[in-house]
Amino acid sequence: MLKQVRTLNKSILVYFFIGASCLTTLPSAAKNINTFIYIPAGSLSDSLREVANAYAVSFSSNPSLINDKTTSTLVGDHTLAQALDFLLRGSELTYKIQDKGFVIFQKKITTNSEILEEITVKGIRYSLASSRNLKHNNKTISEAISAQDITDIPNTNLAEALQYIPGIAITREAGEGRQVSIRGNYPDFSLVTLNGMPVLANNDSPMDSRVQKQRDRSFDFNILPAELFKQIHVIKAYSADKIAGGISGTMALQTINPLDNEGFKFIITPEVGYNDYVGTGAKRYSSLISNTWNNWGVLASVAYTTRESLEQGANTFRWRNIAIDGADLSALTQSQALHLTQGDYIVPRGNRYSVWQATQQRFGANLSVEYKNETTHFDFDMLSGFLKGDRYEYHLYPRGEQSTPIIKGLTTITDIQTNENNELVYARYENARVATESRTQEINTAYQQGVLSLTQQVNKNWKVSAILGKEQSKYDIPYSNKIYTQGISDVTIDYRQTPFYADINYSENLKDPTMWQMHHGDIEQYNSNSEYTFAKLDFKYDINSLIKLQFGADWTLFENKMYNAQQNDIFFNELTNAPQQLTDLPASYVSPQNAHKSLQWLKINTNEALKLYGIDPFNIQNNSSSITTEAEHIQEYSRGAYTLISTEQEKWEAHIGVRYQAESITSHTQAPHSPILYNLWLPTFNGSYFINDHWRLRVGLSKNYSKPLLNSLSFNGSNDTPNNTKYTFNSNLKPYLSYNTDISLEADFSSRSTFNISLFYKDLDDYIVTTQVPLSKTSESTVPNINNLWLSNAESAYQWGAEISLNYLIHNSDWGINLQTTYNKGKVTYYDSNNGSALFKKNLPFLSKITASSMIFYDHPKFNFKLGAIFRDKYLVRAGSLLLDENETGFMPTVYWDANLNYYFSNHWKLKFSAFNLSNEQERQYSNSTLRAYNSTTSGRTYYLGLSYQY
Q1: pTM of the entire structure?
Q2: 3-class secondary-structure state, position 21
Q3: What does R_g of the chain's alpha carbons equal in angstroms?
């Protein structure tokens, strides 16, 4: 049945595309639909501000002309001019509508001495109206954030600004948003464009459970400050004129331009922050200066943040059936001892208390030069930034046999308890192994981009547009160094009361340096660099008043290079030919670790301690130990061409297009002479039907693709891969394909209320999984009884869901609510990465069944306030026999609470306050489908207070 649905889905797309193309000669579509507006009787000043909010514009006036005047109730469908005519009737005032808004003045000619005050509408309602207008004016199903001050949305970076959009979910790092998922799919399946060109910028997580040194196609949104951006447009239904490559959607980011505001503008906003885990102050500074001269404008903006972060928690190396050997079990029952020695119990390994600390600096700068007249629009944007800092992590955990507390011949297990899943949830050990790990890292992410765009109206029928861009992102870990110590103590490990956060207790004084012995060290260097070169040319031709033709082409070169070098297991007793005690280090190299809420232990100044033993912690090449290296170089050429024809009629509009895409992908390490080649045809249809002045129905049918993930192009086994497995690069690998059906019903009841409901279905073909290499592709010299595996497009999947959103501003009130929720369902068959066999069908990676947000706000010209909550349901990250210890891993549900307020002293001064993670939410990562404890952390509540000046 499911196969029939997929076939029908593809057939509908093809036949609808052919059939709709026959309708392009029908008459023109309605434009400038009236807006329903309700403004209660009151002061003229407030009413004009309401009009500006409703139409997402600003206005100017002499305050003395409007402050003492009142108006009647305005209700109904009106254009901006009709609304102003009504409000100003019977007065001596009139108006003039301009590009950015309207001006109110006396009907008599004003003199040069008359002072006009520009009322720049900055409130929440204005932001909602701007977003609504951008969404409505787009020809595809989309969502948007568009505000004159995007920082009025509760956020510390771009990822958090997106949380209140339907279908958007984010992952967090050290309390901040990092990666963004559209409609519950892989973040890698979301294409990100910045100023019109595709981009990629990565950093990573310090946590093993969140995958360190991860190379992927997902843009890490915590790299760049939110203050540099004026608009985020999330395009969910694909159209052929857009850049292809994101099967879950496209996030189009736009930086601020000088001609967004006429004249001189200057903004400076200093802020100070506080996190209740760190205790020290964070600092944020942002500033913008711009000016316009006739048709020219220049803008420069900068933003800088410095902060400290701390995550703490409990984590487990995962659970495993372990046959206990070498421990004294005489205190246990005969049955318990037998089960332990036979390996019947599933034992938690490496039960750690952990602290991750970091200092972080984030900087971004944007320079924009813009020219615009009636026929020409020129824009040059340069964006640069960095995210850098130092990271420290400290762990306390058993590190005995198989990462249990057992020391063979010494440890006694005196008590145990298991649960219904045969998992060892409580154990008491005497004379057991205890260990610490101290790690220090330096991280640097640098981002640079330059984009030149030009639009020229050649004549009344022809328009040509061009974009030329270059982007480069570098992520470096110059050093990542660890030192391990070990000692002996009694220990109890208890998961009975809090399954995701073990209660671990030791009998010894863990801050006594005499109990610790230096064991070994590891050092590492890593870098990953990405680079985009992009060019795009578009032509638009108005065939007649009814039909428009658009066609164009684009070219992209993408390169990614990675290098990793490691020196592991440098044993200190081998360097000195004697056991090394922690007391052998200078006292200044050792200090208490007091950041964890449950236990305190000693931490080590890792770099200084390594130098004491003649090890260079900053340059791995200067050391005598053997070096293990890994390198990869991926190069991709993309060429696309499209044509799109549009027709508009009184009640409906249609946009029918097709794109041709050619790709060449070369892994210079895996297959330097065997590039992956493929060609695709991507038809699209997007249409709208205006049911009446309030309701609009949209339909989208499209085909899109996403390239193989970067780790698919450097395919190799995990550390737990059996010895009889061989991995082969597949030069015939193809991209993921998605056949999409989107339906959206949009309602705009008034200037205060909107309601949207969307349904979508995705048929995902050529899904990449691990399978056996066909015999026809194996060499004659293949060793018998070896599993020959590769990645292939052997699987298909599906996804469907519904999105509902409501923005409602209460009549005769400054209060409003914003609600949205998304239901998602999608499944794919997972494969065993060790033998290539199909295992089971489960949810798609990163897919949360339900995501939702709610916000209540108060919006007055002098004061506005927001309180919001973000819910994300449980989601799976990886599944299959990736490791011996688990069949899947993922995250449990979370709810994050945020708030912010702004108080306007005048049109120039504003007080800002923001609060994040008010509930100090616990991020709980599970291991295995039985939901065993893996990693649980909290990062504390964060507050910012700032003062903004705008001229």
Answers
A1: 0.86
A2: helix
A3: 30
